Amino acid sequence: MPLSNKHLLGLQGVSKEDINLILDTAKTFREVLERPIKKVPTLQGKTIVNLFYESSTRTRISFELAEKRLSADTVNFAVSTSSVNKGESLKDTIRNIEAMKIDMVVIRHSAAGTPLYLTKVCDASIINAGDGIHEHPTQALLDMYSIRERAGKLKGLKICIVGDIAHSRVALSNVFGLITMGAKVSVCGPATMIPRRIDELGVNVIHDIDEAIQENDILNVLRIQLERKAGANFPSLREYATYFGITQDRLERNRKDILILHPGPINRGIEISSEVADGSDQIILTQVTNGVAVRMAVLYLLGTQN
Asked: What number of H helices and E strands is found in the chain?
């Protein structure tokens, strides 16, 4: 069964059936990653361009590994050594790349809406690897896969996204995806970092981290995005850590059986302590491993539907 769309631009409006298809397909590829030879010929002959206009470690390497595991030909676009530095527009860049006969583009860009724009100027399948503060669908999918793998379900779970909600594309994709899958979603953070009217998306807003820990089964902890000037929304990093940081003492005071996720990179000692980040309640590195499987699933489903 193919996906309903030839692109993955976000999780807003994506059906429960499509999300389940991706997660179920990822389970198959997760098993592939445990084999001695972690490679299948599924996308042999397909060419995929990784077009990253923003810095990335986990997402870029994860996509590149997923492409190679599927035997696709991979091209990594480096902005610093490209004609972008000579003034070439995004439209001209993508059209020139497409003229070299490519099949898919994985795009990360600081401007929200860039993946959608690419669908209008080229025929390749577009996968959003993060656009500004809009969405990051594959991160939310790997978060959902990791939760389902551990808890056995998504429907009915109480999941709180903690931290810099206003600047987080991960938060928005998680909200859309988790609500579609029947989870009960809340967000927690300083009032200055919670978007106005976010409750209209169907989430509960909490401003007390202890309450968030007590009332939820899972915390998805986000980093403070200092590169997006998020630090201007509270007096100091020390104050944020005091009132919203996830520490072992705070977990033990409220409840101990809560699962901790974090999309990375981690600001240790700010949104999460090292004790928690390295402790038994978290699945942070499991998320990274699952990310390869989920991205393999997305690439496979989009790359084989034509």
From this structure: 11, 9
Residue pointed to by tokens 């401003």: 207
Cβ–Cβ < 8 Å for 172, 142: no
Q: Does residue 231 lie within any of the structural domains?
A: yes
CA distance 164 to 211: 17
Terminal C-alpha separation, the chain: 12
Instruction: Report if pTM > 0.85.
Output: yes
Beta strand ranges found along 113-217 (DSSP E): 125-131, 158-162, 184-188, 204-206
Do 238 and 129 lie in a common domain? Answer: no
CA–CA distance from 265 to each of 104, 141, 288 (Å)?
27, 17, 11
With H, G, I as helix, E, B as strand and everything else as coil, classify residue 102. coil
Residue 7 inside a domain? The answer is no
164 and 180 assigned to the same domain? yes
pLDDT, tens digit, 9 for 90 and up, residues 191-223: 999 999 999 999 999 999 999 999 999 999 998
Say how many domains are in the chain: 2
**Contacts for 292 with CB less than 8 Å, ≥ 6 apart:** 29, 33, 62, 65, 66, 69
Are residues 223 and 110 both part of a single domain?
no
For residue 26, give its domain range.
16-135+289-303
Q: Which of 248, 239, 283, 238 is nearest to 264 (CA)?
A: 283
